[in-house]
Design a protein that fits this description.
CATH architecture of the largest domain: Alpha-Beta Barrel
Mean pLDDT: 96
Shape: globular
CATH topology of the largest domain: TIM Barrel
Structural class: alpha/beta
Number of strands: 18
Strand content: 5-15%
Distance between the termini: 31 Å
Helix content: 10-25%
Low-confidence stretches: none
Bound molecules: alpha-D-glucopyranose
Number of helices: 14
CATH class of the largest domain: Alpha Beta
CATH superfamily of the largest domain: Glycosidases
Largest sheet: 8 strands, parallel
Radius of gyration: 23 Å
Length: 563
């Protein structure tokens, strides 16, 4: 196989200097980051107390997954009050303390905004249920009559991302069956009707609520789901596409409708009206990237998650194409590409790279009955993958725990599972709990290794987590934590995030990929044979103890400074 580098993308370091173009943004999953009150659930005071470690890691910003009031049917992505903190996590005053501390440490804070759906416990939905068909209250959501003579068939063929139909039938106050409501996710997450200007108004107030409190921006959940085609027609190809879409074919009626773009333009104006470069990143699962680029035009989102890259298998040809597509698409609209390897919805990359295929998609998880990954291989590749990514210009997302090399919990017993995916598929998809397990901070400090002092944990850690605890890695040469710190510090010092990108053709092959960012050459060896490197100063290496003059061995990444 040869990869044609003459058609490979180039990226010039010529775009704006705003912080979000090159920021390293660390995802905090509040349930599992740190637990100050010891009830087994992470909380805001816990986050505040540990922010110093994140500043020391060398990141620019944190994104907090939802901590707003919620019945927690989908781990907080089912919000019942957008302007309050769930008592599980603390209070608004705790939030303010956290934000103040983050800003003191020079960290920006993005909060998660979930506009596609609310919780079924939200007062808007409760009011809709209590109101009659066709009422303004029902117009906040998608209520429809069922099909069939007695209306007992769902209004259309849409299926939920978590399995099962995307419709649930309501019961009228007199006990008779009523209308159906649409939910692209769990039945506890009714979809809002974004054709209704009242919904728009309500969300503008929510944006302002958090911006006034001082947040630096938002990570926006499922923005590509917000628009629905008029009349909510059937998905034209549900057998092949399931809940999703087939790339390259016409957009199905529930994904990436054009009608949503004016909403984000308004939001952008609101953000721009505040000082301090507030920014929003859309979780817009829109492919190919040339379509996703429409979401980061200069007057819409600042960033989107690069799902092409995230979904790419760790193989040279696939990554070559995905990086080319990224620069072509995002440079075309003057937006930064983002790079991400792990998040709270997919198998951690230290496990994905450990040589098991197992289940069809990474969000299906790995359970005790599945083939188990090779931990050592996974970690070695994950460290190399991270270093490969940290050298790329653009903005990078890290997911809590990856700086410890944390693997997925792949042997979690069914009785502990919380992800609605598990229940809606009767366990066929074990779901995402394995990447959401509380972090180990101090090895052996209680059963949860310093996540708190009581040892309680909403998801139990596997025994092996003690080996990965932060205190075992802090200051230890060669540890994954020190590799991240070094990589992040070097990236900052050399301005790699704001830098340029060119393939290094001599290292682009079926066994390796290499690129240049300024005078740094980044090379990864995907093959089995060592690769000779040119002379240069080693700025970083995914394998500890690498010195100049050595070959690049299998599954290793190196940054070489060529003068
Ligand atoms: C996003 C979140 C995921 C959640 C879903 C529904 O994909 O990342 O965790 O389940 O939206 O809100």
């Amino acid at each position: 196989m040869t990869l044609d580098t003459t058609v490979g993308a180039r990226h010039l370091a010529r775009y704006g200097q705003e912080w979000w173009r090159s920021a390293v943004i660390y995802q905090v999953y509040p349930r599992s980051f740190a637990d100050a009150n010891g009830d087994g659930m992470g909380d805001l005071p816990g986050i505040t107390s540990r922010l110093g470690s994140l500043a020391a890691l060398g990141i620019d910003a944190v994104w907090l997954s939802p901590f707003m009031r919620s019945p927690q049917k989908d781990a907080g992505y089912d919000v019942s009050d957008y302007c309050d903190v769930d008592p599980l996590f603390g209070t608004l005053a705790d939030f303010d303390d956290m934000l103040t501390r983050a800003h003191e440490l020079g960290l920006r804070v993005l909060v998660d905004l979930v506009p596609n759906h609310t919780s079924d416990q939200h007062r808007w939905f409760q009011a809709a249920l209590a109101s009659e068909e066709g009422s303004p209250e029902r117009a906040f959501y998608h209520f429809k009559d069922g099909r069939g003579a007695s209306g007992d068939l769902p209004p259309n063929n849409w299926v939920s991302m978590f399995g099962g139909p995307a419709w649930t039938r309501t019961t009228n106050p007199d006990g008779t069956p009523g209308q159906w409501y649409c939910h692209l996710f769990d039945s506890s997450q009714p979809d809002l009707n974004w054709e209704n200007p009242k919904v728009e108004e309500a969300f503008e107030a929510i944006l302002r609520f958090w911006l006034d409190r001082g947040v630096d921006g938002f990570r926006v959940d499922q923005p590509h789901a917000m628009g629905k085609a008029e009349g909510l027609p059937d998905h034209p190809d549900v057998e092949r596409a399931g809940a999703g879409f087939i790339e390259g074919e016409a957009s199905p009626p529930m994904w990436f409708q054009d009608s949503v773009h004016p909403i984000f333009r308004k939001w952008r104006k609101i953000l721009d009206s505040y000082p301090g470069e507030r920014a929003m990143c859309g979780e817009a699962y829109v492919l190919p990237l040339s379509f996703m680029a429409l979401w980061v035009r200069p007057d819409e989102f600042h960033q989107t998650f690069n799902f092409r890259f995230l979904d790419s298998e760790w193989k040279p040809e696939i990554l070559f194409n995905s990086i080319n597509e990224s620069f072509e698409a995002f440079d075309g609209v003057g937006a930064p590409s983002t790079w991400v390897l792990s998040n709270h919805d997919i198998i951690r990359h230290a496990t994905r790279m450990g040589g098991v295929q197992g289940r069809p998609t990474a969000s299906d998880g790995i359970g005790p009955n599945d083939p188990q990954p090779d931990r050592e291989l996974g970690l070695r590749r994950a460290r190399a993958a991270t270093l490969f990514v940290l050298g790329l210009p653009g903005s990078t997302y890290l997911y809590q725990g990856e700086e410890l090399g944390l693997p997925e919990h792949t042997t979690l017993a069914d009785e502990f599972r919380q992800d609605p995916t598990f229940y809606r598929t009767s366990g066929k998809r074990v779901g995402r709990d394995g990447c959401r397990v509380p972090l180990p901070w101090e090895s052996g400090l209680g059963a949860a290794n310093g996540f708190n002092r009581t040892g309680q944990a909403w998801l139990p850690q596997p025994e092996i987590y003690a080996e990965y605890a932060r205190d075992r890695q802090e200051g230890v040469a060669g540890s994954t934590l020190e590799l991240y710190k070094h990589g992040l510090a070097t990236r900052r010092r050399l301005g790699l995030g704001e830098g340029s990108f060119d393939w290094a053709p001599e290292f682009v092959s079926e066994n390796s990929l290499g690129y240049r960012n300024g005078d740094i050459l980044v090379v990864h060896n995907f093959g089995h044979e060592p690769i000779a490197l040119p002379a240069g100063e080693i700025s970083a290496s995914s394998l500890h103890g690498m010195t100049s003059g050595h070959d690049l061995v299998a599954d290793q990444t190196v940054w070489l400074r060529i003068s």
